[in-house]
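Researcher: We're reviewing a set of sequences before deciding which ones to prioritize for further study. For each one, I'd like a predicted 3D structure that I can look through quickly. This is Golgi transport 1B. If possible, include the structure in C-alpha coordinate form so it fits the rest of the review sheet.
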Amino acid sequence: MISLTDSQKIGMGLTGFGVFFLFFGMILFFDKALLAIGNILFVAGLAFVIGLERTFRFFFQKHKLKATGFFLGGVLVVLIGWPIVGVVLEIYGFFLLFRGFFPVVVGFIRRIPVLGSILNLPFISTYVDNASEGNTMV
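Model: Here's the predicted structure for Golgi transport 1B, in C-alpha coordinate form for your review sheet.
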Protein backbone atom coordinates (compact mmCIF):
# COMPACT_ATOMS: atom_id res chain seq x y z
CA MET A 1 0.00 0.00 0.00
CA ILE A 2 1.20 3.51 -0.80
CA SER A 3 1.99 5.63 2.23
CA LEU A 4 0.81 9.21 2.05
CA THR A 5 2.03 12.16 4.04
CA ASP A 6 -0.47 14.18 6.02
CA SER A 7 -0.48 16.98 3.45
CA GLN A 8 -1.16 14.47 0.67
CA LYS A 9 -4.07 13.04 2.67
CA ILE A 10 -5.45 16.57 3.07
CA GLY A 11 -4.93 17.12 -0.66
CA MET A 12 -6.85 13.95 -1.52
CA GLY A 13 -9.73 15.14 0.64
CA LEU A 14 -9.70 18.62 -0.89
CA THR A 15 -9.56 17.20 -4.42
CA GLY A 16 -12.39 14.78 -3.64
CA PHE A 17 -14.57 17.53 -2.22
CA GLY A 18 -13.67 19.72 -5.21
CA VAL A 19 -14.82 17.06 -7.66
CA PHE A 20 -17.99 16.54 -5.58
CA PHE A 21 -18.81 20.26 -5.58
CA LEU A 22 -18.09 20.54 -9.31
CA PHE A 23 -20.36 17.60 -10.06
CA PHE A 24 -23.07 18.82 -7.69
CA GLY A 25 -22.83 22.33 -9.15
CA MET A 26 -23.40 20.96 -12.64
CA ILE A 27 -26.31 18.80 -11.47
CA LEU A 28 -27.95 21.87 -9.94
CA PHE A 29 -28.00 23.71 -13.27
CA PHE A 30 -24.51 25.23 -13.12
CA ASP A 31 -24.80 26.83 -9.69
CA LYS A 32 -22.10 29.53 -9.59
CA ALA A 33 -21.26 29.19 -5.92
CA LEU A 34 -20.86 25.41 -5.94
CA LEU A 35 -18.75 25.50 -9.10
CA ALA A 36 -16.52 28.21 -7.67
CA ILE A 37 -16.01 26.26 -4.43
CA GLY A 38 -15.33 23.10 -6.42
CA ASN A 39 -12.74 24.83 -8.59
CA ILE A 40 -10.89 26.30 -5.64
CA LEU A 41 -10.91 23.02 -3.72
CA PHE A 42 -9.77 21.01 -6.76
CA VAL A 43 -6.80 23.26 -7.55
CA ALA A 44 -5.83 23.54 -3.86
CA GLY A 45 -6.09 19.77 -3.45
CA LEU A 46 -3.91 19.18 -6.48
CA ALA A 47 -1.29 21.51 -5.01
CA PHE A 48 -1.40 19.64 -1.69
CA VAL A 49 -1.11 16.22 -3.32
CA ILE A 50 1.84 16.86 -5.63
CA GLY A 51 3.33 19.95 -3.97
CA LEU A 52 3.38 23.60 -4.98
CA GLU A 53 6.56 23.47 -7.04
CA ARG A 54 5.51 20.41 -9.04
CA THR A 55 2.04 21.92 -9.54
CA PHE A 56 3.55 25.08 -11.03
CA ARG A 57 5.96 23.04 -13.15
CA PHE A 58 3.06 20.91 -14.44
CA PHE A 59 0.76 23.81 -15.32
CA PHE A 60 3.38 26.15 -16.74
CA GLN A 61 5.36 23.90 -19.06
CA LYS A 62 5.90 25.61 -22.39
CA HIS A 63 3.88 23.08 -24.39
CA LYS A 64 1.00 23.21 -21.86
CA LEU A 65 0.54 26.98 -21.66
CA LYS A 66 -2.48 26.97 -24.00
CA ALA A 67 -4.16 24.23 -21.94
CA THR A 68 -3.34 26.02 -18.69
CA GLY A 69 -4.79 29.23 -20.09
CA PHE A 70 -8.06 27.54 -20.96
CA PHE A 71 -8.30 25.70 -17.64
CA LEU A 72 -7.42 28.61 -15.35
CA GLY A 73 -9.34 31.00 -17.62
CA GLY A 74 -12.39 28.79 -17.15
CA VAL A 75 -11.91 28.89 -13.39
CA LEU A 76 -11.72 32.68 -13.55
CA VAL A 77 -14.81 32.92 -15.75
CA VAL A 78 -16.75 30.75 -13.27
CA LEU A 79 -15.59 32.97 -10.41
CA ILE A 80 -16.70 36.06 -12.36
CA GLY A 81 -20.17 34.59 -12.74
CA TRP A 82 -20.55 32.90 -16.16
CA PRO A 83 -20.66 29.26 -15.12
CA ILE A 84 -21.60 27.55 -18.40
CA VAL A 85 -18.91 29.31 -20.45
CA GLY A 86 -16.38 28.74 -17.67
CA VAL A 87 -17.10 25.04 -17.38
CA VAL A 88 -16.78 24.58 -21.14
CA LEU A 89 -13.39 26.33 -21.06
CA GLU A 90 -12.30 24.25 -18.07
CA ILE A 91 -13.28 20.96 -19.69
CA TYR A 92 -11.40 21.83 -22.87
CA GLY A 93 -8.33 22.88 -20.86
CA PHE A 94 -8.59 19.76 -18.68
CA PHE A 95 -8.54 17.47 -21.71
CA LEU A 96 -5.59 19.36 -23.19
CA LEU A 97 -3.68 19.23 -19.89
CA PHE A 98 -4.27 15.59 -19.07
CA ARG A 99 -4.39 14.01 -22.53
CA GLY A 100 -1.09 12.28 -21.84
CA PHE A 101 -2.71 10.37 -18.95
CA PHE A 102 -5.68 9.04 -20.94
CA PRO A 103 -3.86 5.99 -22.38
CA VAL A 104 -2.85 5.02 -18.84
CA VAL A 105 -6.43 5.43 -17.64
CA VAL A 106 -7.79 3.37 -20.57
CA GLY A 107 -5.24 0.63 -19.82
CA PHE A 108 -6.33 0.62 -16.17
CA ILE A 109 -10.04 0.52 -17.04
CA ARG A 110 -9.43 -2.41 -19.40
CA ARG A 111 -8.33 -4.48 -16.39
CA ILE A 112 -11.65 -3.90 -14.59
CA PRO A 113 -13.88 -6.93 -15.28
CA VAL A 114 -17.10 -5.47 -16.73
CA LEU A 115 -15.70 -2.21 -18.15
CA GLY A 116 -12.72 -3.99 -19.67
CA SER A 117 -14.91 -6.33 -21.67
CA ILE A 118 -16.93 -3.37 -22.94
CA LEU A 119 -13.80 -1.45 -23.98
CA ASN A 120 -12.49 -4.53 -25.79
CA LEU A 121 -15.53 -4.79 -28.08
CA PRO A 122 -14.34 -4.36 -31.70
CA PHE A 123 -16.12 -1.11 -32.62
CA ILE A 124 -15.39 0.54 -29.26
CA SER A 125 -11.82 -0.75 -29.06
CA THR A 126 -10.88 0.81 -32.40
CA TYR A 127 -12.27 4.20 -31.38
CA VAL A 128 -10.75 4.16 -27.88
CA ASP A 129 -7.32 3.08 -29.15
CA ASN A 130 -7.27 5.84 -31.78
CA ALA A 131 -8.48 8.46 -29.31
CA SER A 132 -5.97 7.44 -26.63
CA GLU A 133 -3.12 7.69 -29.13
CA GLY A 134 -4.16 11.22 -30.04
CA ASN A 135 -5.58 10.40 -33.48
CA THR A 136 -8.81 12.18 -34.20
CA MET A 137 -9.59 10.21 -37.33
CA VAL A 138 -11.04 6.72 -36.94
